[in-house]
TrEMBL record:
Signal peptide: none annotated. The keyword tRNA processing does not apply. Belongs to the ABC transporter superfamily. This is ATP-binding cassette domain-containing protein. Transmembrane segments: none annotated. Keywords: ATP-binding, Nucleotide-binding, Transport. GO terms for molecular function: ATP binding. It comes from Sphaerisporangium aureirubrum. The keyword Nucleotide-binding applies. Residues 4-220 form the ABC transporter domain.
Length: 220
């Protein structure tokens, strides 16, 4: 099961409240948008779901279990956090080969995700020379290596040109249509409204709205 269930998450960093009782569900088969201004708590929530940060309270479960108790976390959950930080000093393909090797995956799988993420033409170039847009694609390719049923992507539209945004939208919609649960954050509703069936809008660590896009746009 690949439903993500976040219940009453709370997290403070010193005096700063990052998560203030946040609850939402991400269902498989859809892109769920996770929208809010910078500082709203999107990355923190994603890091907690991925077991990279401990919450002060509440739970984040994937298929009913915390990330850290999943038996095969990397084949269950793929993540992209901060693609801007991704600057491997080797070719894109070698970077993916290295990640695949560490997960016990084959070179054939690497070539599949290179193809899927539209990276064939740049796969042999040094990835530290990539534009942010190409790093986003590389990050998504890396997240897909284990063929996960859950994808958690933090701001994958950042740094993409208009054509890249359209490509990423269609790519994510396709991944969700294959039955994956896909949670995608953005500070811009406009990037997600044509892709996400459902949007969770957050502000100051809380859920402000949680509805189908057509309901949100109708002002419900
Ligand atoms: P978003 O991803 O929506 O931009 P974040 O989750 O990054 O929001 O941040 C939520 C709040 O928590 C902000 O006020 C931010 O400054 C604070 N915060 C996040 N990570 C840290 C950290 N490691 N140390 C201190 N404060 C943090
Ligand atoms: P489709 O992709 O078939 O157009 P939608 O993505 O709009 O369908 O969602 C179908 C139903 O599932 C809607 O009622 C929607 O509100 C609900 N849904 C989708 N994602 C979520 C979610 N993350 N949490 C709760 N309900 C959701």
């Amino acid at each position: 099961e690949s439903t993500i269930e976040v219940t009453d998450l709370r997290k403070r960093y010193g005096p700063a409240v990052a998560l203030d009782g946040m609850s939402f569900t991400v269902t498989p088969g859809h892109v769920t948008g996770f929208v809010g201004p910078n500082g709203a708590g999107k990355s923190t929530a994603m890091r907690v779901i991925l077991g990279l940060d401990a919450p002060d309270g509440g739970t984040a479960l994937i298929g009913g279990r915390p990330y850290r108790s999943l038996s095969r976390p990397l084949t269950h959950v793929g993540a992209l956090l901060d693609a801007g930080a991704l600057q491997p000093s080797r070719s894109a393909r070698n970077h993916l080969l290295w990640l695949a090797h560490s997960q016990g995956l084959t070179a054939r799988r690497v070539d599949e995700v290179i193809e899927q993420a539209g990276l064939r033409e740049v796969a042999r170039r040094r990835a530290d020379g990539f534009s942010l847009g190409m790093r986003q694609r590389l990050g998504v390719a890396a997240a897909l290596l284990g063929d996960p049923s859950v994808l958690i992507l933090d701001e994958p539209f950042n740094g993409l040109d208009p054509e890249g945004i359209v490509w990423m939208r269609e790519f994510l919609a396709g991944l969700a249509a294959q039955g994956r649960a896909v949670l995608v954050s953005s500070h811009l509703m406009s990037e997600l409204q044509d892709t996400a069936g459902h949007v969770v809008v957050i502000g100051r660590g809380r859920v402000i709205a949680d509805a189908a896009v057509h309901e949100l746009l109708a002002g419900v």
